[in-house]
Amino acid sequence: MRYTALILLLLSTFSSLAQSQLAPHSKLLKRRVQKRHTIRTVNPMPPGYLTPNVGHITVGIGSSNLLNRFNPDQAFGAGIDAIDIGSYGQGAVGFKLPHRGSTYDNASGDGYSRLTDNDKTSYWKSNPYLASYYTQESDILHPQWILINLTRKHSINGLRIHWANPYATNFTVQYWAKNHDNPIDDPTKNGGQWKTFDKGQYSAQTGGEALLKVSSQPLSVQYIRIVMTASSNTYDSHGQGDARNRLGYAVYEIEVGSIGSDGAFTDYVSHRPDTKQTPIYVSSTDCWHTVKDQTLSDEQVGLDLALRPGGAGRGLPALVPVAMAYGTPEDAVAEIAYLKKQGYPLTGVELGEEPDGQFMSPEDYGALYVQWATQLRQLDANLPLGGPILSTDSVQCFPDNRGESDWLKRFVAYLKTHNGVQYLSFISVEHYPLDPTASWTALYDEPAAVDTIFSWVANAGVPPNTPLLITEANVCAGSSEAVVNVMGAIWYADFIGRFFSDGGRSAYFYRYEGMPLSSDASAPYSNSVMFLADPSTLALTSPPETSRIPVKPTAEYFAAQLIHREWAQSIGKLHEVYPVQCDLMDANGNQLVTAYALLRPDGRWAVLLVNRDEAAPHTVSVKFLDTTSHYFKGAVQALSFGVENYAWHPNGADGYADPPGSITRLVQAGGANTTYILPKGSLTVLRGRVH
Known about the structure:
Blueprint: H1 16-21, E1 54-60, E2 68-70, H2 72-75, E3 94-95, E4 124-125, H3 132-135, E5 144-156, E6 158-163, E7 168-176, E8 194-202, E9 209-213, E10 219-231, E11 250-259, E12 265-267, E13 280-282, E14 294-295, H4 303-307, E15 318-322, H5 329-342, E16 346-351, H6 362-379, E17 385-390, H7 407-417, E18 426-431, H8 446-459, E19 468-473, H9 486-501, E20 506-507, E21 531-533, E22 551-553, H10 555-567, E23 575-578, E24 580-582, E25 593-599, E26 605-611, E27 618-625, E28 629-630, E29 632-642, E30 646-649, E31 656-660, E32 664-669, E33 675-678, E34 682-690
Parallel strand pairs: 1-27, 15-16, 16-17, 17-18, 18-19, 19-20
Antiparallel strand pairs: 1-24, 2-23, 3-14, 4-11, 5-10, 5-13, 6-9, 6-11, 7-8, 7-10, 11-12, 21-22, 23-25, 25-26, 26-34, 27-28, 27-33, 29-32, 29-34, 30-31
Helix pairs in contact: 5-6, 6-7, 8-9, 9-10
């Protein structure tokens, strides 16, 4: 028997194009961005670019206007977040969980719940690290639950629970009291709440097979929840050799239905060993597994393969995740101890992964966080630790007894009352703002979406000056052409510009490995990558550090070039961010052009201008203002990329870009009367000295 962490380790695989032209960035590996560019002088105002109206860009340069300082070498992570390395023939190793509770997961999606698999020898078991034995507080404070979605309303008055060991001695059976709302996706919508059936309160239970009449009269409901608050602490099927085997709750199979006047029970649950079973969600799952549960198809790669000198990460400092929701603190400590012994430099450790996607309560996650962090700090008292790595912002959960439903606020509150804030060196979340079907005009919302993240974190009671990291981001999470056309590039520019203007510390793109186009069901062919690979060329050579996959860059690649190497200056020194105002608006009040200004270590100012107008170019003047007005002087380098440089042509799995992408490079003289052309649907960097 083993409790081994499902460690998310990362592999970086780059083509010669990727390594020579752009230093990629992601959650695990950080890479220095090399400045490498040439400028050619051309007519500063090409025919066809002029528009009758001039927009005005004003940069506030006084010391009181300073918004943020950041070091690009730390701000733009490098490498790969997580990839399905199995498709690359690397023999990646992961483990399935025999006591899984939820029907669906956020990974391969080929698992299923053991609660409705029609097998009374398999069982779900909750996470033992949430029992009082480890949390040092009452189990009532960490109730574990099973939620059943019958997919439509049924007349319900009874349940049959086939308890395993340990079983619940005290539990409550509830129903969702809103007719048309989903408690999983919208736990706070329209005042939805869980109500206890009039006969749904149970205590001093003895396990076994229990047929329960939970309601005097049948109720028409779709969602049912069993909340467990006291355990029998009897050992499970794995024996008495490990205390964890008796902690928590376990159930073989569960049935939900109606009990007739003759005592006959009608079950409305579909029991089958696949994802077509009646959907089940659980509060946690025991990570127990054995070697026979090993799988080669999960997102797992070797530590050394990613971090050794000369390996995929080139030996550069890494932000490394450790498993928490499905791991053990001992495994987390072992992982970091090994990395330190090998001499691999670390910038910090992220604890866990996407607790909202696992439907974990903030208090449960907080309890695990404190346990893991305590042991990691015993290994290294100065190790930067952070999380909680929520998959989106403003996450809401089932309200507590005070009516509070903000996930992050409750997580931070738990840390504060359990001596855990000392372990919160940074806050990290993920950012996928747009729906896969979103239109170009949805790009107008990105700056406000970034502002929302900062407001949400501030309102959650996070200690002041705690750095905010976006450790996984792209324009959208699903299959969408937005991530392979210029829409993705425009989004990326606004995301990065606004994030560092708002005071962000580090931002990580997902994802950088070369991958072929793919499609989800009827969705268009796409992939959330900066490099598209031909499916026939995915076999890697050995050793991995010399492997190459021929790839073609997507629009987001060119955006990253402009931002990481032309807007910012990668020499390991601080950049200063200043506020910018622009008066270019459309008839509906949307800001057509956004702008972000840096004072670079070389003394030059760099202004990133994002023309979000897909149909028309715009002309702007640029003024730098403290107590008086200042302007670019001498040569002003203007570098742009947009719809005139890159056009995506859908063609199923063989989609392509034509033109394939390039950066337009111009030089013109600055001055008070100089105007600058922003091509339609583009991002432009203006860089020079200011008089």
